[in-house]
Each structure stands twice: as structure tokens, then as C-alpha cells.
Amino acid sequence: MPQKGLFYEITNKQKESKTVDIMVYGTIPSLDTDTWRMTNTADRFVRDFKALEKDYDRINIHINSPGGSVYHGFPIFNAIAASKKDIHTYNDGLAASMAGVLLLAGKTVHTAKNALLMIHCTNGLAIGHSQDFRDMADMMDKYNGIIAQHFADKSGKSLEDIQSKYMNYKDHWLTAQEAEEEGFVDQIEDYESEDAPPEDITDMAFSQVMAQYTGENPEKKAADERGLFQRLTAYMEKTFKLKADPPAPQDPPSPPSNQTETEEDMDFKNSLALLAKDQVSAEDIAAIRAEIEAFTGANEKFTPDEVQARVDEAVQPVQDQVDSLTQEKTDLETEVTNLKIEKGNLATSVTDLTEENKTLKLDIQAYRKSGVKVDNSGGENPDHIEGDEKESYLHSEADAEVKALRAEAGIKAKAE
């Protein structure tokens, strides 16, 4: 089983044959339904994959996945497709959505004979104003074009053919034989998936397909379905600085009052109690809306200054962090510039020393050619060097007389 928090597992390392398997079983990447965050990103997979390339010549990637995020999936796809190693991808049961695209990254694409391939357009989620939704739609269209191009490249079909047949906002389920006929897989292997998709998977909504591979139990799934209301409750508590009290037995309704509640009187306990229910009805939502409108005024709108103040308050911590990182970047750039200057100064010093060394060598050569002995022996005809005169030996009168007699007798004097 993959390590907790990971959507893949590296296994079956064979040092002698230099082969290794990667099991991509689950959503890409894993989704933590407690925090609604993706718990693993592409960088971890890519680092592990690059490390395997150093030691193994054949890498087998086994896929049994409903897909996941294109933002995480495509960096993984690109790392696999760009590899110089012998990469084989296998559809062990289900290769749907982004997992179906990932299947195409191998140099050779295999499939179990009972596996399914699912192709569809990109799904997305946006929160914001109308332009945010238009931007999201434009981005999904771009990804649809990229996905269609990969299937066209693998199958040899035209881009227009793939787009008209598969990029039409429907889920397209292909058996192993159909995927082979379309040119999306290279060969059907003689094995069946041990974890084959449910027989009714083609009738499921894509969210149900994803749920099959997240390991959720029914109780957790029911709790997740209430997650939206729980998050809304937390948002109201934070916005209006409230804290929900535990639901208490309801008292008989109080007699109607002619006094209108003020902002200080309202505590939103009714709305918070409704949101805490397992199932919230349309009538409950209407009651919540009425209570909020009673607080803000049915037609009240925030002024631009109030909106900007809220935005500034939310953005300021991020801006402070950006400013800090910008200053850190500037300091690092200054340090790099100083190091470059120091490197340049050192290079200049080396050049000067090299030139000085050349000059000294030329001086030595010229000195040697001049005939002057470096050891001051003088040679046969030494040039006079001031200060190089030999100091005369000191002799006694008797020595001088002996020397004269020797010369008179023709006896050569010993070298002094």
C-alpha cells in the first residue's frame, strides 16, 4: 500500500535486471477530505522518479486511478514522457480522467484485459464573480485542447477527430479492446485486474467514481456531505464573532413582540442551530437568510470603501510576507553582486601576477645571455660589478718574503 499521504508506491526493485515498479493507485494526488486539501504534489513524485532513473533502465508504472488534478498530473506526465529510460505504463483496472492521460506517457502502453479507460473534458471549480468563472472556463478549454492533442499524438488520429469524439462534455468509457482499436494502448496483457472497477461504474457520477478510490467509509462520507454547512457555520461565527452553543431543547415560542431586535440583541442562535442539523431544508435556508437580512438590512450593500477595507485587512499579512521575501531577495542579489565584484578583483590580481611573472622570466633570460654569472664567479672576463671586489688576504712580512723567493726560483704560487 502507498505510504500515507502519497498516491503512489515504489516497489519491486530489481538491481540485477535494473527494473522497478511504481504503483499509482488512488487519486492524483491524494485528497484529505478532512481539510479539503491535496496532501501531496507533483514535486515529490518527480524527485523520486528522477532518482529511480539513475539506477534503473526499465520503469514500470502501474495505474489504477480515477484521475485527479491536471495541475499535479501534467508535471508527472512530462517527467515520464521526457525520460530516456524504457518506460512502460499499465492500466491495472481503471485509468480515468487525468490518470487516462498519464497512461499515454509510457513508451509502451499496456492494459489488463478487464481494465477501463475513461476520457472526458476537464472539470473545475471556481469561487468569485462572473469574470472568475469565465477565466476558469477559458483555462479548462485550454487543458481540453492539450488533452485532446496527447490522445491524437498517441493514436495517430487528427486533433479534430479526437475533439469531436471525446471532448464533448461526456464521459467516454473504453474497454481494453476498444482502447487498443483506437490506438490509445499498444497491447492487451493476459491478466485481469485484482481490483477491477465496479460493474456499474459507467453509470456513476464522476464524484462517485472518485469516492471509490479515496477509502471513505459511509459514516465519513455522510459527514463530508455536511462539510459545506459546517464550513458555513464556521464562517458566520468568525464574521459575526459568534460561537454556536450546543443545541438545546426548544422552548415554546414566545409571544410576538412589537420591539424590533437591534444588532446587539441578535445572536444568530437560530441560524446556527439550523446549520448544525444533519439535513438543512429549503425552509431552514429561508429562515437563515431572513435572520441575516434582519441584521444587515434586506437591501443594504457594502460601500466600496468598506469592501476595500475588508480586502486590505485580508491581504495585508500576505503583503507583509511578500515584502519580507522581496527584501530578502534584494539582500541576496546584493550579496551575489558583491561576490561577483570580489571574483573580478581576484581575477585581475591573478592576471597582474601572471604578467609580472612573464616579465621576470624575460629579465632572467636577458641576464643569462649577457654573460654575467649569477654566482658572481666572474668567468674568464667578468664584467665589473661594483661592490663585487674580492677582499685581499692579509699576509705577514715573512709570507711576503717567501712568496718573493718562490717567484725568483720559478715556483708558482698556490692559488689563494
TrEMBL record:
Coiled-coil intervals: 322-370
Biased composition (Pro residues): 246-256
Biased composition (Basic and acidic residues): 381-394
Keyword Mitochondrion: no
Keywords: Coiled coil, Cytoplasm, Hydrolase, Protease, Serine protease
GO MF, any single term: serine-type endopeptidase activity
InterPro entries with a match to the protein in the record: ClpP (IPR001907), ClpP/crotonase-like_dom_sf (IPR029045), ClpP/TepA (IPR023562)
Keyword Cell wall biogenesis/degradation set for record: no
Region (Disordered), start-end ranges: 243-265, 372-394
Any one biological process term the GO annotation gives: proteolysis
Similarity comment: Belongs to the peptidase S14 family.
Protein name: ATP-dependent Clp protease proteolytic subunit
Native source species: Cyclobacterium jeungdonense
